[in-house]
Amino acid sequence: MAKAIARWTGHKVKFDIESASGHTASIDEPPVFGDDAAMRPTEMLLGALGSCTGLNVVLLLKKFKQPLASLEVEVEGEQEKEWPRRFTKIDITFVTGWSGDFDKKMVDEAIELACNRYCPIHATLSHGVPIEHKRKNT
């Protein structure tokens, strides 16, 4: 089971996040609530989607022997104006650079597979998942 722990730093709304693999990140909010010291949780969600689809595109294009030189994955989300301000639409744009001739059909296939077959973040967001919550004391 995948796991991450978000620990409140004790200062405003800043949290440090640690994954089961031992890697860390931080989140915060802009002033008045926070100090703007880290990425917003919503930005982290978009970044997770971009990096998950992107790493799968890279792996597939290597497998398809395509001369990928650079890749940026731009992820933009539209949010409702009222709380909880859920995302109502998310657009992903793959900006590619090449070091030679490439097969457009293979590139499109790699992007399609990366998004709709291999990325668990994309699958979760596009199909939804039940989320349960509970509380325990330390």
With strands numbered from the N-terminus, the spatial order across the biggest sheet is 1-2-3
Q: Note the quaternary state here.
A: single chain
In percent terms, what proportion of residues is strand? Answer: 25-35%
**What's the SSE pattern?**
EEEHEEHH
Q: What count of domains describes the coordinates?
A: 2
From the spread of the alpha carbons, the general shape counts as elongated
Q: Can you count the helices?
A: 3
Counting helices, strands and paired strands, the structural category is: alpha+beta
Question: Can you name the CATH architecture of the largest domain?
Answer: 2-Layer Sandwich
CATH superfamily of the largest domain: K homology (KH) domain
Task: Draw up the topology in text.
Elements: E1 4-8, E2 15-19, E3 24-27, H1 41-63, E4 68-79, E5 87-98, H2 104-118, H3 120-127
Helix pairs in contact: 1-2
